[in-house]
Design goal:
Blueprint lengths: L1 H5 L7 E8 L2 H7 L1 H18 L5 E6 L2 E7 L3 H16 L9 E8 L10 H26 L1
Antiparallel strand pairs: 1-3, 1-4, 2-3
Helix pairs in contact: 2-3, 3-4
């Protein structure tokens, strides 16, 4: 965020996203070994599907953070699609649900996220919105 502000004339931006394994609490409690294997598999798939210029972090509670500097929206959408497909194809014996939330940060909105905690809270709300949208879609299909 500081670099976006400090180098305003360069018009820098970055995407920051969360990828979360839903029901991580149940998995970690009832299948701890399998849960660790799932997290390792997600990390491996993220390393394969994401660009070398991106940063991938495991932050806690079944959640990975991806930081993607200077990637266009079109590229980000394509990479996210590939990532989602790869994660869906994971060969694991326990069905899991993965959610993804992304936010572009640039000169227009960097001040909304003065701290990482505010950005993380915003992204977590995005993950929850995905869940609500899915439930609404399921209701419409009935």
């Amino acid at each position: 965020m500081q670099q976006i502000e400090n180098y305003a004339d360069l018009n820098l931006w970055t995407y920051v996203g969360l990828i979360r394994c839903e029901r991580y609490k149940q998995l970690s409690e009832y299948y701890p070994d399998e849960y660790l294997r799932i997290l390792r598999q997600i990390a491996k798939d993220l390393k394969i599907s994401r660009l070398k210029s991106e940063f991938i972090y495991y932050i806690a509670d079944g959640t990975f953070m991806v930081i993607s500097p200077q990637i266009t929206r079109e590229m980000m959408e394509k990479i996210n699609t590939i990532t989602k497909e790869n994660l869906r194809k994971m060969s694991i014996p326990i069905p899991i649900d993965l959610k993804m939330s992304m936010q572009k940060i640039d000169l227009e909105n960097y001040q909304e996220f003065p701290e990482l905690s505010k950005l993380a809270k915003h992204l977590h709300r995005g993950l929850e919105t995905d869940i609500i949208v899915e439930y609404l879609k399921e209701d419409q299909d009935d």
